[in-house]
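=== RUN LOG ===
request id: a7f3
mode: sequence -> structure
chains: 1
length: 293
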Amino acid sequence: DAMDVGPDVNKFLRANDIEGVDIRMAGGPNFRHLTINGTGPILKDVRVRKAMSMAISRQAIARALLAPLGIKAEPLGNHIFMSNQEGYRDNSGEVGTYNPERARQLLEEAGWKMSGNVRMKDGVPLEIHAVIPTAVNTSKQETELMQNMLAQVGMRLLIDTVPSPDFFEKYITPGQFDVTVFAWIGTPYPISSARSIYATPQRKADGTYDIQQNYSRIGDPEIDRLFAAANAELDRSKATEMANQLDAKIWEIVHSLTLYQRPEIVVTRSGLANFGAFGFADWVYEDIGWAKK
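=== RESULT ===
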């Protein structure tokens, strides 16, 4: 009776050819992003992370993934709020601006010199491994687009496709990757629910780190302070302002690169009432049912 097609273009096009169905869309609290592992020997340098971000055209990626769905292609400029959510402000600044020439300058400053088609430093090529799961066409498209963009500034992006069941357990959670792409599925309460993604990892008694959901392993005391203050603030406008301040800091340390708000697209059998793409709304179960003919 209903199927969530998410942002999958192939499923969306197939649904358009089916008679007797409705396609329902909404903008919810979900977004696609590039997570950057800041502990590796190359990406621990914030200049390299910044160069990589500025070498990626988020507008082009949004256009490639959203335009076939009939959705306006617009990069997301905030890690906390979605573009159709109260409090949204584009804090991406220089980091989120496509500027390959500036990216090349940053890489030169960081000591990465061109050698043929790729940059080198101390005999090591500037190679970044992107780990993605099998059978996720969106991840494949996004990383292939990034691969071409990064090549223009002398960065070689190698795409490693791994079995989907192993993606988080064996690669993302233990930090066996340089970059990856996936969707964060948010809630209508973005400040509190986002904290675990950006909080500074804390060392545990056994010497390992509790990263929570901070797969980038990059943190900052000011971000932690602002999250604590915003979550304790009862004045919504003040909490929103603090959330935007910490978001600007997330961009500054190049923790991750937001790509675009992930559309909610649900295909339902015609006549199914009050069910489909809910966006920021809650389900009201007693209102779901079949419309009278």
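=== NOTES ===
The first helix runs from residue 9 to 16.
The mean pLDDT is 95.
=== END ===
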